[in-house]
């Protein structure tokens, strides 16, 4: 009888242990999926918590690492994001997703050489035509455009457009990348048509980035009304998305300075180191002839990204309006 009881106890213990292991696996998967959902809706605090918990699970490890870095990046925790990304890459050096996120965060802090290195790594490691591959091509092309290497960027834009022409791009995120490519290559009407497809809910989940880039296109073409509509659609998905908040601020810049400032500060509440929002406030301060305040704000922006061409240009303008010719020449 004692042997029978002992056998039953051992069997029950084994079942409980197996159940706990399965529950642990389910919890890990659930943490990752909940982290992704929280990230999509802009609940960044919960997203970080879920991704941190998911790191204990071996499933979706690279994705959980990348999700955590994205949450850190979108909330302006750049230095922590750089540190964590480098730690993750030390053991996952061939992860195209981690190289993509590391490249994005390097670009945000003005490490353009580092950004190019990681984005090119992502492109070489990701399967051709995958979402990561197309994201990395777009990110690198925009980086090269921003630092004046337009010939190099054009080669990348043409890659995206050619892949679209072959009929291999259908989902929102990927179509949004092609829309940006068409825009930069000067095919504005084609870009609009592609963005309309990219932001069609019939395709499934609409990419926040595709929506934000569609709004940017309207802003560049001085169509603030359409831009506002697109950015507001973006905020319906993620009410804290910094790119959409600053998009509304820029759309309001010429007809409502108060709202422009309000939305810029809303973006900074989510991401205190968001350079586009700091630049927006600095420009408003210059327009109000509050040059000391403008210089203070631009100092904060340059502390985040010392290589920001927009900030440096605003700084030169501010020095010029102040009559500070020596500082103007130094900045220029």
Structural class, from helix and strand content?
Answer: mainly alpha
Main sheet properties: none
Q: Stretches where pLDDT falls below 50 for ≥5 residues?
A: 1-29
Number of distinct beta strands? 0
Strand percentage lies at under 5%
Number of helices: 18
Portion in helices: over 70%
- Helix-strand pattern, N to C? HHHHHHHHHHHHHHHHHH
Radius of gyration, taken over Cα atoms and rounded to an integer in Å: 23 Å
Q: Characterize the overall form.
A: globular
End-to-end separation: 91 Å
Rounded average pLDDT: 90
List keywords for this structure.
18 helices; about 325 residues; globular; mainly alpha; about 0% strand
Describe this structure in words.
- The chain has 18 helices and no strands.
- It is mainly alpha-helical.
- α5 (96-108) packs parallel to α7 and α7 packs parallel to α9 (172-184).
- The longest helix has 40 residues, at 2-41.
- The relative contact order is 0.06.
